[in-house]
Amino acid sequence: MTNGSLTFNYISYERFLQDIEAVAAQVEADDWRPDFIVGIGRGGLVPGTFMSHRTGIALLSVDHSSKVYGFADALLIHLAALTRAGERYLFVDDINDSGKTISYLRDTIVANGGVSENIRFAVLVNNVGSCERVDYASRTIDRSTDRDWFVFPWEAVAPRHTLEKDAQADPGRLGLHHPET
Fold first, then answer.
1. What tens digit of pLDDT does each residue of 74-116 get?
2. Number of structural domains found in the chain
3. By residue range, what is the domain housing residue 6?
4. What confidence tens digit (pLDDT) does each residue in 22-31 have?
5. How far is CA 81 from CA 61, 86, 88, 114, in A?
6. Is residue 177 included in any domain, yes or no?
7. Which run of H or of E encompasses 69?
8. CB 153 within 8 A of CB 11
9. How far apart are the first and last CA of the chain?
10. Is residue 125 a part of any domain in this protein?
11. What is the DSSP string of 102-144?
12. What angle do CA 145, 152, 42 make, to 5 degrees?
């Protein structure tokens, strides 16, 4: 669905399940085994829940999207200490687009003494142009050519104006310009 230069790409529930299966298979094929899956709020909470059920690995969550950093940071600092004790965490998100979320989470954990080898990241969609790398992904896009705004099944209930606002929050990501007011 197109809105001017903005194209919404609605991800079907079936495609979402295929993405979960692809990521779960990669995790299970790896020798590295997480003790916990961490769903990243808000877009990674549903994929994290599905990954937890699919793999049998317990689920935790951290809400970065709320912008209540004291809340999220307290949890990340706690996880950093647990990585020093040897626990492993697989952070799950819907998309690695710009990499800002993953960078923030990784940097906060490491800055608080966390062991980087004990954290990994998985996403359903990975942008090759992101400033951050992920360890597992179902599929890869290149934002220099793919400017679609992905609407995952749990977002499909949002009003159109909310989807548009979310897509335009970082206009550089999709090659958009802020609308003139």
1. 999 999 999 999 999 999 999 999 999 999 999 999 999 999 9
2. 1
3. 2-168
4. 999 999 999 9
5. 16, 9, 11, 6
6. no
7. helix 69-84
8. yes
9. 24
10. yes
11. HHHHHHHHHHTT--GGGEEEEEEEEETT-SS--SEEEEEE-TT
12. 105
